[in-house]
User: Which sequence fits this backbone?
């Protein structure tokens, strides 16, 4: 399984020379199996470039949305497979007690925000409200679970060929927690990340930023490392970079993090264009 | 075993409340009670830990106003779980510290998306001594 980062930024695209190293596109991740089956995690602006690399011979793509905040769907209308007749596109997203996934996505994919409606897309589009528990998509086993973030939000654990990727791009595991994160099943997202080979996890804030933004649904760098430690993740990629963290700042914060927390697993800040082989 | 997110958040909420709170799973097993509840129940949660429904429902020797024992299925938490509706009543317990206390209890079923029964939470207060 190959995992490619096409967008690493949270909240808002931040293009420009000061973010060239870690990237300015909002979140989009490609997961490709050995047989070329493709999963796309989230549909931030990074999905545009991702979509242009999907071979014309591909007949099915599955897009797994963690939630429907704008930075996770704003690239969807520019995802090339949506405009290929006979291409089978499946979009999976969290259920809401109030409104269907189609209705919620349709708020963005309709005028005046976007000129093309979901129902007018030429591809063969199917929407799925992601169930809690396992789903099999081609060679992938996808496990979804509600996680701590405002509004319906899921995290994913994707397994193929005996390897596991855990994707928790927007996640506040420390909400309401005094002291260390709780163990024994009492931390949001814990089961998704347990013993995973690669953990892509929210690390938007410094401790100082977090003090002003408790409840906004994001994690600090240190809590991301702590979460990786208690779940025994084998590698941590800090993700969903804050728009205010340019390359120089982010590199400094990561160096300080590693020096301070001495993580037991490799830790890095996700870079747009980076590919991991599991 | 991973707890449901709604239960995790309920525990976190309870841990900040000044109101005593008690949380059970769908089978009625005790998952958590907060610091203010410890005062009324007479024991720290860290010491009791999680308990089976049949243990906690008799441990505190609940009785009605006349001192008659209350069977477990007449306790608000277990009624809320069974009926999936809020339940409220007053009764008396003997805390693990041996003190007799009058409790006023309101229990709410916790139902997640797609109708998943997650458990129930009771909020309670100490009633007037009689």
Assistant:
């Amino acid at each position: 399984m190959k995992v490619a980062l096409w967008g690493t930024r949270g909240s808002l695209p931040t293009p420009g020379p000061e973010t060239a190293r870690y990237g300015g596109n909002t979140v989009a991740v490609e997961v490709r199996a050995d047989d070329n089956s493709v999963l796309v995690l989230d549909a931030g602006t990074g999905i545009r470039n991702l979509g242009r690399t999907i071979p014309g011979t591909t007949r099915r793509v599955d897009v797994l949305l963690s939630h429907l905040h704008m930075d996770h769907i704003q690239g969807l209308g520019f995802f090339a497979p949506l405009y290929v007749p006979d291409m089978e596109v499946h979009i999976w997203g969290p259920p809401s007690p109030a409104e269907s996934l189609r209705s919620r996505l349709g708020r963005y994919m309709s005028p005046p925000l976007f000129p093309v409606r979901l129902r007018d897309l030429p591809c063969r589009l199917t929407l799925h409200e992601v169930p809690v528990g396992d789903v099999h998509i081609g060679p992938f086993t996808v496990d979804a679970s509600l996680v701590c973030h405002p509004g319906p939000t899921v995290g994913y654990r994707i397994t193929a060929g005996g390897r596991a990727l855990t994707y928790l791009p927007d996640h506040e595991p420390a909400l309401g927690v005094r002291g260390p994160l709780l163990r024994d099943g009492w931390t949001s997202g814990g089961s998704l990340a347990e013993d995973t080979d690669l953990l892509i996890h929210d690390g938007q804030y410094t401790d100082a930023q977090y003090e002003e933004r408790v409840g906004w649904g994001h994690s600090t760098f240190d809590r991301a490392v702590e979460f990786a430690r208690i779940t025994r993740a084998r590698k941590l990629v800090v993700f969903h970079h804050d728009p205010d963290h340019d390359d120089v700042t982010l590199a400094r914060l990561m160096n300080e993090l590693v020096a301070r927390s001495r993580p037991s697993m490799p830790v890095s800040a996700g870079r747009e264009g980076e590919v991991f082989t599991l | 075993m991973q707890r449901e997110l709604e239960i995790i958040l309920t525990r976190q909420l309870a841990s900040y409340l000044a109101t005593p709170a008690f949380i059970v799973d769908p089978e009625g097993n005790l998952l958590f009670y907060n610091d203010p509840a410890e005062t009324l129940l007479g024991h720290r949660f860290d010491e009791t830990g999680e308990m089976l429904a049949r243990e906690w429902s008799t441990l505190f020797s609940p009785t009605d106003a006349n001192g008659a024992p209350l069977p477990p299925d007449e306790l608000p938490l277990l009624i809320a779980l069974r009926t999936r509706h809020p339940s409220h009543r007053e009764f008396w317990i003997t805390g693990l510290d041996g003190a007799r206390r009058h409790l006023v209890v309101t229990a709410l079923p916790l139902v997640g998306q797609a109708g998943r029964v997650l458990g129930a939470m009771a909020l309670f207060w100490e009633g007037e001594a009689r």
